[in-house]
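Reviewer 2 asked us to include a model.

Predict the structure of this chain.
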Amino acid sequence: MRRRLRNLSAAMVAALVVAGCGRGDESRPRPSAQPATSAPAAVEPAPTTPAEEPAPPPTTTLPASTVPRAARVQPAPAQPAAASCPAVPSRVEPRPDRPAYQLRVDVRPGEGLVGGRQSVRFTPDLATDRVVFRLWANAPRIVNAGGGIEVFTEDDVPVERPDPTTLVVKKPVAAGQTVTIGLVWNLTLPTGVSNDRISRSGDTVRLGSFFPVLAWHPGLGWATEPATAGFAEASLSLPADFDVTLTIPQGLEVLATGVSDRPGHWVASGVPDWAVSVGDFKLATGTADGGGGSRVAVTVGVDRQVGDAPGPYLEKSIAVLADFSRRFGPYPWPSYSLAITPRLSGGIEYPMHVMQGPGTLGRTTSHEVAHMWFYGLVATNQGAHPWIDEGLATYAEARYEKALEELKAKPVPAEGRGRAGEPMTFWESRPAAYYRSVYVQGAQAVAALGPPDLVDCALRQLVARQAYRIAGPGEVLGALTTVFPDAGSVLARYGIHG
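Predicted model (structure tokens):
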């Protein structure tokens, strides 16, 4: 029997909304649109921040090409870093107890609906009396634009909904016990303009953070940080394996996390989320050097509603992927895709797949590629510690754009100075200070550790030690101190503590 879960009204959600913060800008979302050859743009790149199986689940074997590359290419490549850069250890492999999602997704743009059935196989490392899914499709920005998700359980299991974005399945699970949870859901696409991860513009659809996702942090338990009203993330999702069957209207194309091993079927391994863009795309393809002898298939699609050409985005994505693979360790997956779609300022990152808006070739592109390492590979709790993925991605962006000195000189608002480590709940009422205080100040803190080549070395240490894991401030500082013993005291000056 299916237990229906009532969808909270938009009015109830609105009661929870605090003043929204501009995601990727100091005041409001807008494109950052300067080509790589231009002087650095004055606007800021938009922030980012980012399955199942029917019962009984079919047995699926992931193709070898979808297995994370770290499982096959262990040693990090030799780096021309300073002599005091310690050897980087072999990258850790994905956790053997990671979740496995199977999704069946039916996208119906003409009806403004997406139907889904999912199951997830889950093995907690701690005993728990519940299983928690986050419903980010009920976040304030999506609901205010007319969207939302309604969820049903496949079994007669007691459930609770303490807030619009949290679904609690009352099912005790022992440490090391494996359970499979099945859900059915209906997603209503926004009817208004949605400058966000869930959007519809004609037949063009963005779907990111759109299905119920587990919020388990190994060693700590469930992450229940509230949703943000800003153009930002408050999510945590554990790296997992995905098997997705996708149905779309004829004549449209798909760019998504993972690789398509047959028509309508996508697989990905060791990724913290799964996202897809559907549209009528002008495509450009190429290959990037992923480090460690690997090659990365790169695809850029520009929706035909948008005037941009795909070629420049492809060229820059290939160059940035190669650069970061040298700086931070090999790119971990076999593919990378970028979709340029209407009604989006800045970019939104997902593992192996990025969504950007028109005119975002400049710093936004390098920023979002950096998130493949800092959020995609080294996952974080973005609600509790937004500085980790956004500060590190901003540092990487500045390194590629040769704008590190410019970034270090940027002033930080008084209300955020020395508070880079604050959670998203702190920034909800301080939207104007968010970008400079978290993105810029987080990057400044990392840059203050020492020479840039050694900072790159320290970040390679982080990636090698925390790949396919959720890293908190303690894990980040632990890795940084392998190169900079005083990392804790340096970052503390910026309000970042382990």
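The chain has eleven helices and 25 strands. The first helix runs from residue 10 to 14. We have added this to the supplementary material.
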